[in-house]
Amino acid sequence: MVSDAFSRFARWMERQSGRPGAFVTAFAVVLVWGLTGPLFHFSDTWQLVINTGTTIVTFLMVFIIQNAQNRDTQAIHLKLDELIRATHTARNGMIDLEEMSETELAKVKSSFERLARTAECLDHRIDEKVERAVEREVDEELDERGVPDPADRR
Questions:
Q1: Predicted model pTM
Q2: Are residues 105 and 147 in the same domain?
Q3: Which of 89, 97, 128, 152 is the 20 to 30 A CA-CA neighbour of 6?
Q4: Is 19 helix (H, G, I), strand (E, B) or coil?
Q5: For the segment 101-139, what is each residue's pLDDT rounded down to a tens digit?
């Protein structure tokens, strides 16, 4: 019950605090505070008012922002898990990686780094083979048409 109420409140707060009106309100508060400085002779109490107010707002917003970030991260993980589950060639072992320990994640990362190095090496080999095959096809086509090879003119 409290958790649901907090979640609803947090979603409402994150939507409100991200609007231009929230920025304008915060700016107006700081502007009014600054303009009242001479009236209060820039006293310690005058400074304490803004320091206390901004500290309280910042402290409370940390929890709102963390709640929003946790919810967004969880939603992204669930969407990615669904994509992994729905893709027949994907490895289902990748579902719930976020639940693994740092050591287990390091092993998975290491295997992907090896895979990337292997793929890079294979890409170069494949590129070279494709390039040679295309050159052969072009040469054959030029021969069939009786067109002299431009490389021979050099």
A1: 0.59
A2: yes
A3: 97
A4: coil
A5: 899 888 888 888 888 878 777 666 777 777 788 778 777
